[in-house]
Design goal:
Layout: H1 12-17, H2 31-36, E1 46-49, E2 53-55, E3 60-63, E4 71-76, E5 79-84, E6 89-92, E7 97-105, E8 125-131, E9 140-147, E10 159-160, H3 172-175, E11 189-190, E12 197-198, E13 202-203, E14 211-212, E15 224-226, E16 236-238, H4 240-255, E17 258-264, E18 271-273, E19 281-286, E20 289-290, E21 297-300, E22 305-308, E23 317-323, H5 327-348, E24 358-360, E25 368-372, E26 377-381, E27 393-396, E28 399-400, E29 407-410, E30 415-422, E31 427-431
Parallel strand pairs: 15-16
Antiparallel strand pairs: 1-4, 2-3, 3-6, 4-5, 7-8, 7-9, 9-10, 11-13, 12-14, 17-23, 18-22, 19-20, 19-23, 21-22, 24-25, 25-31, 26-30, 27-28, 27-31, 29-30
Length: 432
C-alpha cells in the first residue's frame, strides 16, 4: 500500500536564506538549480578541453569541432555551468579593432532557454565576438584577435591566447587562506646551496637569484670560453676550435720534423736566416753539391741561422734540410753512409778506362765507372755498361752530386744532363 507524501516546497528565495544547503535533496523541486551549483567553488571557470581555432576563409575563425570533446565551465550568478561544444562554429571577426572571442552562458530559475523551449529567444550558451575591453566577469575568454585595417585574411600572428584560462580544481583560493584541508596549507622550504653555487634562501615566493662562483686553479666554478691558443690565462678555458688549432699546430710541427727548404741567394750572404725556429739542421746543398758540416757550414741554434764558410754568389740555389730525421731515417742514412764508404774504397782502388777512364770494380752488385770530361759541357754520355743500370750515385771531383738539383739522367738519349756546364778535365764517377 503506497503512502502519499505531501510537502510544501520552499521558494527559491527561502532556499537562498538557509545558512547551508546540500546538493541535491530528495524531492527537491529546483533540481536544475541544485545541479548547477554542485561544483561551484570546487572547479574554476575556464576551458576544460577543446574549443581551439582554425583559420577560416577571409576574416573568419572556426572554433571547436564535431568531436564532442569541447568542454568549458562558466561561473555566473552563483552557479557553475558546464558547457559542451557539439559542433564547430564559424565567427566573423571585424577588421580595424581588437576583439575577444568568448563563451557566454545563461541560467536563471524560472526562465526557459532555447535548450528547453524552441519558442524561447534566449540562448543557454553561445560563442560571441565582443570588443576586447568589453568582456564581462562571467565570460570565458578563448582568444584575443587584432585584425589590421585593410586585412583580407586572418593569420596566426593576429591571434593571442594570453587571457585563455584552463578549468581546474579550485586549489589556488585555498592556499593563502585558513582552510581545513591540511594538504593545501602553504609550506615554507629552504633551498640550501654550497660553493660554487651561491644564493640559497627560503622559497617564500619572492624572486631568488642563484649564481655560480668563477673557477680558478683552487676553486670549482663557472669558466668563460676563449677561442685562442696563445692566452696565458689561468681562469679561461679553450674552445674546441682552439684545441683543434693546437692539434693542427702540433701536426704541422711534426710534419716539419724534417723539411727541405729552398732558398735563392741574393749574393754575398754568409748567413741564412731560417723560415721558422728549428732545433737542428741536417744538411745543406748549394748548386746541387752537398756541403760538409762544420767545414762549409754550421748551425747557430740561438740565432736560428745557417753560417757559411764562404759568401754565396747571386742566384745560387740552396736546399737546406731542416730538423732531425726520424730514428728510421737515421738508420737508413747510417746504412747509406756505410755503403758510400765502401764505394769510395772501391773507387780509390779503380784505374782509368775508356774515354779517359775504365770500367771495373770488385763488387758483384754494383758497377763503378771513373772518367773525365774531354770538353767543357753540360752533358755527359752514359757509358755502354751503364745503359741498362740505374745510376745511384754520381761524384764530380770526388764530391757527391744531388740528383734533380745538380743533374738529371735522360735514359732515352743516353745522356747525363747537368744544371750548369762542367769544365774540361773534371773527374766523374758513376755508381750503379
Amino acid at each position: 500500500m503506497s503512502k502519499e507524501i505531501i510537502i510544501l516546497p520552499p521558494t527559491i528565495t527561502e532556499v537562498a536564506d538557509l545558512p547551508l544547503v546540500s546538493d541535491l535533496q530528495f524531492l527537491e523541486v529546483a533540481t536544475s538549480e541544485a545541479l548547477n551549483r554542485k561544483m561551484l567553488g570546487v572547479v574554476n571557470p575556464g576551458i576544460r578541453r577543446g574549443f581551439t581555432y582554425k583559420l577560416g576563409k577571409g576574416l573568419s575563425l572556426i572554433i571547436g569541432d564535431d568531436s564532442g570533446k569541447n568542454t568549458a565551465c562558466v561561473e555566473r550568478d552563483n552557479v557553475l555551468l558546464t558547457i559542451q561544444g557539439q559542433h564547430a562554429v564559424t565567427l566573423n571577426i571585424p577588421a580595424g579593432k581588437e576583439s575577444a572571442i568568448v563563451i557566454e552562458a545563461f541560467y536563471q530559475y524560472g526562465v526557459a532557454t532555447k535548450q528547453v523551449d524552441i519558442n524561447s529567444d534566449i540562448d543557454a550558451a553561445q560563442l560571441l565576438v565582443v570588443d576586447s575591453n568589453k568582456t564581462l566577469d562571467h565570460h570565458v575568454i578563448l582568444y584575443d584577435v587584432i585584425v589590421p585595417i585593410g586585412a583580407t585574411q586572418i593569420t596566426d600572428e593576429m591571434i593571442s591566447d594570453h587571457r585563455r584560462k584552463e578549468a581546474s580544481l579550485d586549489i589556488e583560493s585555498h592556499v593563502a587562506e585558513a582552510d581545513p584541508h591540511t594538504q593545501y596549507v602553504k609550506k615554507t622550504f629552504h633551498l640550501a646551496t654550497e660553493s660554487p653555487l651561491q644564493g640559497g634562501k627560503s622559497l617564500d615566493g619572492d624572486e631568488m637569484l642563484l649564481s655560480i662562483d668563477r673557477a680558478s686553479t683552487t676553486q670549482e666554478g663557472v669558466v668563460q670560453l676563449i677561442d685562442s691558443y696563445t692566452s696565458d690565462s689561468q681562469v679561461l678555458a679553450p674552445t674546441a676550435n682552439a684545441l683543434r688549432m693546437v692539434h693542427q699546430k702540433a701536426t704541422d710541427a711534426m710534419n716539419k720534423a724534417v723539411d727541405h727548404w729552398n732558398y735563392t741567394a741574393k749574393g754575398n750572404e754568409e748567413a741564412i736566416s731560417l723560415p721558422y725556429a728549428v732545433s737542428a739542421v741536417d744538411s745543406v746543398i748549394i748548386q746541387g753539391v752537398y756541403q760538409i758540416k762544420d767545414k762549409a757550414w754550421n748551425f747557430n741554434a740561438d740565432a736560428n741561422v745557417v753560417m757559411l764558410a764562404e759568401p754565396l754568389m747571386k742566384g745560387d740555389e740552396i736546399i737546406i734540410t731542416l730538423g732531425t730525421p726520424s730514428n728510421d731515417a737515421s738508420v737508413i742514412i747510417a746504412e747509406l753512409q756505410d755503403r758510400i764508404n765502401q764505394l769510395e774504397a772501391i773507387i780509390n782502388a779503380g784505374g782509368s778506362g775508356e774515354g779517359g777512364g775504365s770500367e771495373g770494380g770488385n763488387d758483384k752488385q754494383l758497377e763503378i765507372y771513373n772518367g773525365q770530361f774531354i770538353a767543357t759541357s753540360n752533358t755527359f754520355r752514359i757509358p755502354s755498361s751503364f745503359r741498362e743500370r740505374h745510376i745511384k750515385i754520381l761524384f764530380l771531383q770526388g764530391v757527391q752530386q744531388a740528383e734533380n738539383s745538380s743533374y738529371t739522367v735522360n735514359q732515352s738519349s743516353g745522356l747525363i744532363e747537368f744544371i750548369t756546364p762542367i769544365d774540361k778535365g773534371t773527374a766523374i764517377t758513376l755508381v750503379g
